[in-house]
Amino acid sequence: MASVTSTQPKAGLATSGADIVIQSLVNHGVDTIFAYPGGASIPLHQALTRFRDRIRVVLPRHEQGGGFAAQGYARSTGKVGVCMATSGPGATNLVTAIADAKLDSVPMVALTGQVGTPVIGTDAFQETPIVEVCRSVTKHHYLVTDVNDIARVLREAFHVATTGRKGPVLVDLPKNVQLAQTVPNYDAPMDLPGYRVDQLRARPEQIEKVAAAIKAARRPVIYAGGGVIASDAAAELYALVEKTGIPVTTTLTGLGGFPGDHPLSLDMLGMHGSVYANYAVSEADLLLAFGVRFDDRVTGNVAEFAKSCRIVHIDIDPSEINKIKRSDIAVVSDIKYALAELNRIVEPPQNTGDWVRRVAEWKRTDPFRYDESYEGILAQHAIHELWRQTRDRDTIISVGVGQHQMWSAQFYKFRRPRTWLCSSGLGTMGFGLPAAVGAKVAHPDKLVVDIDGDGSLLMNVQEMATCFCEKVPVKVLLLNNMHLGMVVQWEDRFHAANRAHTYLGPIDHPEAVGRGNGIGPEERYPNFVGVAAGFGWSGRQVARKADLSDAIREMIEAQGPFLLDVQVPYQEHVLPMIPAGMTVRELIKK
Amino acid sequence: MRHVLSALVQNVPGVLSHISGMLASRGYNIDSLTVGETESPKISRMTFVVMGDDKVLEQVRKQLEKIVTVVGVDDVSSQDHVERDLMLIKVTAPPGRRGEIRELAEVFRGRVVDMASESMMIEIAGQERKIEAFINLMRPFGIIEMARTGIIAMVRGANSSDLPAAEGK
User: What is the DSSP pairing of strand B81-92 with strand B119-126?
Assistant: First the structure.
């Protein structure tokens, strides 16, 4: 008999469902879990204490923070992010992070406690049918009702989350199943007759067609997306560009998939993409769409997008082919495999010299720009300064959602994949800080900076406690304009500048009704440096341009978590802009 | 265009909810959806009647195939196939008109399955169009209530749908 203090389940001995769950995590290489306990997940947390030497438990201060921290971990490492919550409200608090992972194809396993099977369906205390709630926002989901299924279900969960088009898998674990005992079989065969990922490889004749299209092209452009990051295909993409000299634009999720400071980089395309990327796609005769899904923020008016060119679409998800835009050559394939095969036979197109020169000229004429003579600090300037100071060190950037997010995408030139953490498809405010937590836990030696807006930061500000208590020294570069800047911009452009609940200060301020000075009150609300101090952080506020460089240096060099509150004006628009549903012809430059 | 799709799905709790939820949330127009067992207890067959052009059909099919518990999807209506709909229909039938109704039912190969003093219940199976025609014939008598199963369908010939074994990736 095993002694009662044994922590290692031995073959042939009965063990609890909760221990089988945690042992399964260990078996799948999980070294960190972001987990907030509650009544229905107590056995799982008790089991976690028996695996202290193998799994670090990070305690977030809200389940959504835990979910986004798991994403930050996953997005920055490529490994599965694991989060856990209790039943009911704990589980529903995870839903946004799960939906976010689904839209950006982030591999995640979310574990939830559930009320015991005898009371499921009785509206028991803290009961929600979380599998029902999450069906359409997960890649797959399980409600485990038999302890004997746990090891197999966890195997399947990790397999499904990490293969094909990656995504979140939810495993709901009733408390009595966690407590039940059985002899686990960690090699139990998976039962996934409908899940086939072996065919996700381009066929040779498809690769030949793509190569032929490239060779015949006169005005080719590569449009690379998150698929390049997800399949670790950045090196293959780089090799293709080196061989063919074709300019590259990336989507928001594709940033870092190709070096942003490369001469052939056209930066991001789409609504707030570069003038030159949008011109290039509009004038191209061949669009090489790699690991992308023709999102509406990229295409604008779908019928007009890339209207006169041939489209090669390579994606791992068959349902993305022809979903929005019909392609001339469609290839269902893992992008890394497809590009590696393509690189073996591809020849550069003939006579693209004029085209490349034209694109370079667009890039020279209309770069991303801002008013460098502005006497205060513009958000773009702060981001540019951060980039200047951090570009030669290992840095991971996370962001919230809004203007600061777009400016970060424009002005921080990402060189490597998995250094840019951005809620792109779902666009979840509050993503930045918890995502930074997850990335910093995974990469303690790298500098992790959350470039955030004041609206976004406040949505998960409680994670400052996680940073302090769990010793996760992330940095926050707060671009504070006291407004919901992106909505303000739309109000200015499309709603006669009528302020509709987009001011985040007291309602008796003139800004609340749009009668402010464009900069905002000198004393910002809330006092973020004070808030940070309350959480045990260091911080500094900066309003003068002359102080910015030094303040950023102080933030980078600080030992612990540090918040730099930068006062920026609110009357500043993200440009260029192609209004929703429009075309490159309606592109607004100023 | 009307399409009949047949999907083999893992017989696990929630699969119907998952599929119908996906179809609804993506805005597909489903005329009929049936579920039943197959020769394998682990697999159920779902049959859908989908309205839409080829682009819609392609997306419905791919979105179905993307669901992990969906084993395979077949576009039955693009092949030589048989489809059936089963209906129970209760009509007003005073004693003087029973013979007339019975005759009509016989022409359509229907069967009288219940008779009350003022009503009759008829069971009728066949293609959707035949069922519709019979309903129209019954209207003048007064339809009290009716229930239909929705379409089931199968491709003609010796081929069976492949049921991959567990772990058959």
Answer: antiparallel
Active-site residue, selected from the candidate residues A126, A389, A462, A571: A126
- Residue A255: partners with Cβ closer than 8 Å, 6 or more residues away: A268, A409, A414, A420, A422
> Quick one: tokens of A517?
């000075």
**Is A350 considered catalytic here?**
no
Confidence of residue A10 (pLDDT cuts 50, 70, 90): low
Domains of chain B, start order: 2-79 (3.30.70.260), 82-152 (3.30.70.1150)
Kindly list the residues from chain A whose CB atom is less than 8 angstroms away from the CB atom of residue B17.
Answer: 132, 135
Position of tokens 């069967």? B111
pLDDT band at A5; cut points 50, 70, 90: very low
Q: Is pLDDT of A6 > 50?
A: no
pLDDT at position A87 over 90: yes
Which of B22, B164, B167 is closest, CB to CB, to A136? B22
Identify any residues that bridge with B112 across adjacent strands, giving them in sequence order. Answer: B122
Q: Which fold has domain A379-567?
A: Rossmann fold (3.40.50)
Alpha-carbon gap: B37 to the closest alpha carbon of chain A (Å):
16
User: Can you give the pTM of this predicted structure?
Assistant: 0.94
ipTM, two decimals, is 0.88
Q: Closest Cα to residue A94, out of A58, A120, A70?
A: A70
The answer on pLDDT for A329 being more than 90 is: yes
pLDDT tens track for B145-167: 999 999 999 999 877 665 444 33
Structure tokens at A154: 């966890």
Task: Report how far apart, in Å, the C-alpha atoms of B82 and of each of A262, A274, B78, B157 are.
Answer: 60, 56, 12, 10
**Best mutation target, A130, A162, A192, to test chain B (most B CBs within 10 A):** A192
Q: What is the pLDDT of residue B168?
A: 34
A284, pLDDT greater than 50: yes
CB contact under 8 Å between A135 and B66, yes or no, is no
- The CATH code of domain A15-182 reads 3.40.50.970
Helix (H) or strand (E) holding A24: helix A17-27
CATH class of A204-365: alpha beta
Q: Could you say which of A194, A317, A322 has the minimum Cβ distance to residue B10?
A: A194
pLDDT recorded at residue B160: 66
Q: What is the pLDDT of residue A3?
A: 43
Q: How high is the pLDDT of residue B165?
A: 42
Nearest CB among A189, A193, A323 relative to B164 is that of: A193
**Alpha-carbon distance A332 to nearest alpha carbon in chain B (angstroms):** 12
Among residues A376, A590, A342, the alpha carbon closest in space to that of A481 is found at A376
A189 touches B at CB < 8 Å: yes
DSSP labels, A483-538: B-HHHHHHHHHHSTT---S-B-S-TTSGGGGT-S-SS--SS-SS-HHHHHHHTT-E
Domain ranges of chain A: 15-182, 204-365, 379-567
* Tens-digit pLDDT profile for residues A120-135: 999 999 999 999 999 9
